[in-house]
Amino acid sequence: MPIGGGLSAWSETCTPGRSNACLATCFCGEQSSTRRRKCSTGWSDSILSSEAYRRVRLCNEEGSMKDFFVSYNRADRSWAEWIAWQLEEAGYTTVLQTWDFRPGSNFVLDMQRAATEAERTIAVLSPDYLGARFTQPEWAAAFVQDPTGVEGSLLPVRVQECEPKGLLPQIVYVDLVGLDEAAAKDTLLAGVSRKRAKPIAPPGFPGAVSRSVPERPRFPEALPPVWNVPHHRNPNFTGRESLLADLRAALTSGQPAALAQAISGLGGVGKTQLAVEYAYRHAAEYDVVWWVRAEEPATLAADYATLAGRLDLPEKEAPEQRVVVEAVRRWLGQHKGWLLVFDDAGHPADVHNYLPQGATGHVLITSRNPTWRGVASPLSVQVLERVESVDFLLKRTGQTDERAACDLADVLGDLPLALEQAGAYVEATGMTLAEYLELFQSRRTELWDEEHPPLDYPHTVATTWSLAMERIGQESPASADLLSLCAYLGPDDIPRTLLSEREEHIPKPLSATVTDPLAMNKAVAVLRQYSLIEMTGDALSVHRLVQAVVRDRLPEEARRTWAEAAVRLVNSAFPFHSDDVRTWPQCSRLLPHALAAAGHAEALQVASETTMHLLNQAGLYLHGRAEFAEAKAAFERAPAIGEAAFGPDHPNVAVLVNNLGLVLRDLGHLEGARAAYERALAIFEKAFGTDHPNVATLVNNLGLALKDLGDLEGAQAAYERAL
User: Fold this and answer.
1) Residue 434 belongs to what domain range?
2) Which of 270, 297, 502, 526 is the 20 to 30 A CA-CA neighbour of 355?
3) pLDDT confidence of 192, banded at 50, 70, 90?
4) What is the pLDDT of residues 123-140, one digit of tens each?
5) Kindly report the CA angle at 492 between 614 and 415, in degrees rounded to 5?
């Protein structure tokens, strides 16, 4: 039960010397209290030697009693530190494992000493605390000393939603759930108060009480000042405690080789969720937490470079992206207190040049690729243990049928993504777990006769999504159409304005939905019910596996329709002057969608001219940012599409070939650049004649390549002709 104010005060005169009770006067900093305390002559004698126990007795009798022993589960360490700090700032003294138990000491003796020397015990209540075995003796010892609560020896402080069971509900608890920091502080101090007449200002004292730690811990619920994690914390996150503990132990070990951890495993196994949970759980311990989408080299560089703006680095406006990236990398190498997350990285080479030098911060990498040694310490993530799968399904759905949950977990292979989708479907439809299991088993063969599973994912995932998508198609055709369109864009950060401001490129009736805020909100809400879409601010996100299943389910004509709509949509939004630095923020955000939409349109051979143009604009942007390898990939794809659409000798093809020559020259591929310029020149001469200004431009470019190749006479002839 939460409390509304302080507990009643008490005071007794203490007389040391009795064998069955230790009467001690405790002068703790600014607190002065006299109370009776029972000696632990029962279980303490069985653990401590007579000499060690004598030292504890003498220590207690000499007046070194602490006010509070803070008992907590390691998952709630940030809460425990915040509570202890607030108490010490208010003049109390505390015993806290992370502050007071030092390396080399005996943990059992430290724990016994803490329980013996502290007059009161604070139990930091959370689901983790109540479910742990080793925290029970800590609060039970205080409860036994004061079962009626008259002396307030045991004070529970609830920091997360949980329901104490057994003996704990008898003790009134301090409730900090849902409070901001100021309110939480006031509630905590009111709860620990015994209504003594403490002055507002601390009385003078010749010797200042030393502070346990030099810096004030951040409020556990507050995020770091620099934070861009694109995912909300999962309230149904279950299990993975050993993995989280291993991550924390490795990252805080001080060993340089362990400061970067690569979380690898099967697609859908929960790699990203593990990184998200770690970031939120330890947010109070970092000043910078920065999330980088690492699935594409271009998005990796863009997200990494964006940190320069948040750090207000002088290089943040530099036109060359590599300069900005190096500035961020240098800053990270010179500062501590940061966490960098590379999500969905493909290969070690992709992130190697982005890892800061020096052992100053922490790096998490999520990837399907398990080969990360040499760049980071690998941490393999497997499917959930069966008991964790069952716990998750029951928590996610609010149901209690453990047998059905166990059978369903078995069918789904304990894959977290499949469990989440099944739980979302059950919650949205109101069916039981047993009914879902029966439906799943009866439809699986039929569904898999019609579609193919995505690579690296068992069929249970796609089947689960198929059931949800079928239901959505019946409930809300607009939602189904929205999901189909998003399936042909990049998976993350799809701007809602991209849809609402360019409805002329979207097929009906979805075009009417995206321009009507109420209708759009309803369409998104239906998809969110089934966890098929995420919404963060003004952007939508769809898991890439959801996208794959959506595309697989569509008939051929529908695939072509949505692929064409997506590429025309992004092309209309992508800046025409993409090599102009003023357009780069918009280009950076749209680049993942440009590459994805162009790829699907290219594969389905739709909207060839639009696809060619979009790839060219993306290439020009990447070239301007000095991302030459990625620009080359875009420029190489565009001419082939142009040739198929217009023929090999069309002037549009010449423009694309010329741009390819530009990036080849910047990469040092001079022979390739010369060949590209010569081909483009031949096309232009045939189309416009030998004296056209466009021809002169290409002759000048050819001269530059010849000069770089050392053919100075050829370069001179080219320059003279261009003049």
Assistant:
1) 386-475
2) 270
3) confident
4) 999 888 888 777 777 777
5) 130
Token pair of 18 as six digits: 């009795």
pLDDT at 593: 96
- Specify the residue for token string 């919404």: 535
**In the 8-state DSSP scheme, what is residue 173?**
B
Residue carrying structure tokens 């998508």: 469
Tens-place pLDDT, residues 318-354: 989 999 999 999 999 989 899 999 998 988 999 999 9
User: CA of 660: how far to CAs of 131, 417, 636, 686, 711, in Å?
Assistant: 61, 41, 7, 20, 21
Q: What is the CATH number of the domain that holds 262?
A: 3.40.50.300
Does 57 score more than 60 pLDDT?
Answer: no
What distance lies between CA 12 and its chain's CA centroid?
A: 53
Number of domains within the chain = 3
Judgement on whether residues 374 and 395 belong to the same structural domain of the protein: no
Determine phi and psi for 631, rounding to 5 degrees. Answer: -65, -40
State the pTM of this model.
0.56
What CA–CA distance (Å, rounded) separates 110 from 7?
29
Element (H, E) at 25: strand 22-28
Residue 57 shares a structural domain with residue 158: yes
SS3 70: strand
- In this prediction, residue 151 has a pLDDT band, given cuts at 50, 70 and 90, of confident
What's the full length of the chain, in residues?
A: 723
Cα–Cα dist 682/680, whole Å = 5
